[in-house]
From TrEMBL:
Residues 372-382 have a biased composition (Acidic residues). This is V(D)J recombination-activating protein 2. Belongs to the RAG2 family. Keywords: Chromatin regulator, DNA recombination, Metal-binding, Nucleus, Zinc, Zinc-finger. It comes from the Eukaryota. It holds the Pfam family RAG2_PHD. It is found in: Nucleus. One of its GO terms (cellular component) is DNA recombinase complex.
Length: 528
């Protein structure tokens, strides 16, 4: 095992606990940044380019028929497909935290549809399921099992917010363990069924799961309710006959009390377990080899790498599997650094030099790995976790389109992230799209009051229909502050008086003529 430090160039603040990595045919993609994406990369997905121990990031793109994928932190993630080169190879993403700390219950399928040196394009599709749909959560795992020629996905563990009916003012955003239910999802028919097994008594999060065929091995994990790291090793077996599925659980000896550990595969039957925590204030520096043969599992201790003093003495650490026997580890940077959010990163290679070659992974790994987010929890608490799934290899990618965070404009005080009014609540770190036309920035409209200024359409309580009408029509708009002033300055409308219609001369002449004729007839009769 060898440990090598890598330098993140100009963008290390994006690499925070909670993100994931996607590995497509040896290309590593970053997903799940902290905060909403900026205009430099509105998708929030980057290609990681590692050359000469330097890490750079290049924006990736989504196809036109893709759905919106928020930057989810700590989701459950696994692959669907036996080979990274297969056309059907894709990732399943479930749950996770949005940048405003809301939990997601959605399921996404993401695949790579176009790959060249200049542009990487993904297609993301949201999947709808019915039945016993799992609640929104994070710190859980999702796996794919294969039995009798059929495949299904399995979701287990995780944490969620306290139900609304049980919340108090002091603990409004507190989290609890999800029920220890096993969810079986059939994406072909879009249905989900939950199973309560007597062997699973406590909810677990930040555990490790390794899938092989129709069997899932669950190792470690942390229980909030009991504040313990489970020492049990669970074996879930899923049978998919023509009728109803059968799910059984067996408790095996030889488990490890650990949470937030990382697993990487080094051969068809061998895996390496690295990192994690023994307790809230003790990192786990021991490594283990896990061997799967037939229906048996064996866990033995193996020689650990020569950890650096920074790793040994740091309070927290995080990382994830990069594929093909490599692991990316991160530790917080020193407080004296100019960038307070910067972290140090290392690549741990668990294979020997003679074994470090391209191999197709026939066994699926689905492991939740992390450490806590320093801003959201106390040291060593397994409340925050993220997952990697990538390979630490050098890419021959053109550097012209490499993402540089220094090129970003400061939008905290100007541009779209201004305080447009006294009641403005638009914040770059918590904003979510409100209108269907929004993607990575809020909709704004120009107020004609005074010298003119921009305001957020959402702060002005504009409906989407009205916003579209104002954008298409050539009319002046006045915000809530200037609308009354504008009315007072307007010139009163001119009152139009109705004119009386004069009597028709023809009718008057006719009346006079009738009177003259009557008088002549009277005089004639009088003299006769």
């Amino acid at each position: 095992m060898s440990l090598q430090m890598v330098s993140a160039i100009s963008n290390s603040s994006l690499l925070q606990p909670g993100f994931s990595l996607l590995n497509f045919d040896g290309h590593v993609f970053f997903f799940g940044q902290k905060g909403w994406p900026k205009r430099s990369c509105p998708t929030g997905v980057f290609l990681l380019d590692i050359k000469q121990n330097e890490l750079k990031m290049k924006p990736a793109f989504f196809s036109k028929d893709s759905c919106y994928l928020p930057p989810l932190r700590y989701p459950a993630l696994c692959t669907l497909g036996n080979s990274a080169k297969s056309d059907e190879y894709q990732y399943i993403i479930h749950g996770g935290k949005t940048p405003n700390n809301d939990l997601s219950d959605k399921i996404y399928f993401i695949s790579l549809v176009n790959k060249n040196s200049k542009k990487m394009t993904f297609r993301c599709i949201e999947k709808d399921v019915g039945g016993d749909v799992p609640e929104a959560r994070y710190g859980h795992t999702i796996s794919v099992v294969h039995s009798r020629g059929k495949s299904m996905s399995v979701i287990f563990g995780g944490r969620s917010y306290t139900p609304l009916a049980q919340r108090t003012t002091e603990k409004w955003n507190s989290v609890v363990d999800c029920l220890p239910s096993v969810f079986l999802i059939d994406f072909e028919f879009g249905c989900c069924t939950s199973y309560m097994l007597p062997e699973l008594q406590d909810g677990l999060s930040f555990h490790v799961s390794i899938t092989r065929g129709d069997t899932i091995y669950i190792l470690g994990g942390h229980s909030l309710q009991n504040n313990i790291r489970c020492p049990n090793l669970y074996k879930l077996k899923v049978d998919l006959p023509l009728g109803s599925p059968a799910v059984t659980c067996t408790i095996l000896p030889g488990g490890i009390s650990v949470s937030s550990a990382i697993v990487t595969q080094i051969s068809d039957t061998e895996f390496v377990l690295v990192g994690g925590y023994h307790s809230d204030n003790q990192k786990r520096l021991v490594c283990n080899t896990i061997v799967l043969e037939d229906s048996k599992i064996e866990i033995v201790e193996r020689e650990s790498p020569e950890w650096t003093p920074d790793i040994k003495h740091c309070r927290i650490w995080f990382g994830c599997d990069m594929g093909k026997g490599s692991i990316l580890l991160g530790i917080p940077g020193a407080n004296k650094q100019l960038i307070s959010d910067a972290n140090y990163f290392y690549i741990l290679r668990c294979k020997g030099e003679e074994e470090d070659k391209e191999e197709e992974l026939t066994t699926q790994i689905c492991s939740q790995t992390s450490s806590e987010d320093p801003e959201d929890s106390t040291p060593f608490e397994d409340s925050e976790e993220f997952c990697f799934s990538a390979e630490a290899s050098s890419f021959d990618i053109d550097d012209t389109d490499t993402y540089n965070e220094d090129d970003e404009e400061d939008e905290s005080e100007t541009g779209y992230w201004i305080t447009c009014c006294a009641s403005c609540n638009i914040d770059i770190n918590s904003w979510v799209p409100f209108y269907s036309t929004e993607l990575n920035k809020p909709a704004m409209i120009l107020c004609s009051g005074g010298t003119g200024h921009w305001v957020h359409a959402q702060c002005m309580d504009l409906s989407e229909t009205m916003l579209l009408r104002l954008s298409e029509a050539n009319v002046k708009y006045f915000c809530n502050k200037h609308i009354d002033l504008n009315k007072g300055l307007q010139t009163p409308p001119k009152v139009v008086h109705l004119k009386k219609q004069p009597m028709k001369p023809l009718r008057k002449k006719k009346t006079m003529k009738l009177a003259t004729t009557t008088k002549k007839s009277f005089l004639r009769r009088l003299f006769e």
